Amino acid sequence: MIQVDYSNEASIRHVLTGVDVVISTVPEAAFDVQWKIAVAAREVGVKLFVPSEFGGISEGKTEGIDVEKAKVHGQLKALGLLYTSFYTGGFADQIWVPYVSRCTYLIV
User: The whole model's pTM is what?
Assistant: First the structure.
């Protein structure tokens, strides 16, 4: 395990030096950090970047929750960093919430 100071670009570059693939799993609230990681990855020669893509397909989205993820795709293209996305689809704990919250449970 290596500690990284994400506010320090030299720290990020140091950790990524010699790495071939970066898989980002940051939450949407930390996409600014993901961008710093991507820039550092490009600078040190990382071959493939996998952006954080929990949920459905976000590429090309212009509204809704996936807009920030779609922006990341554009940034990676502009950066010239090879990337691939893996879409997980909805998580069961998110999909069923509207239905479960309406149910009444009786435990006997």
Answer: 0.74
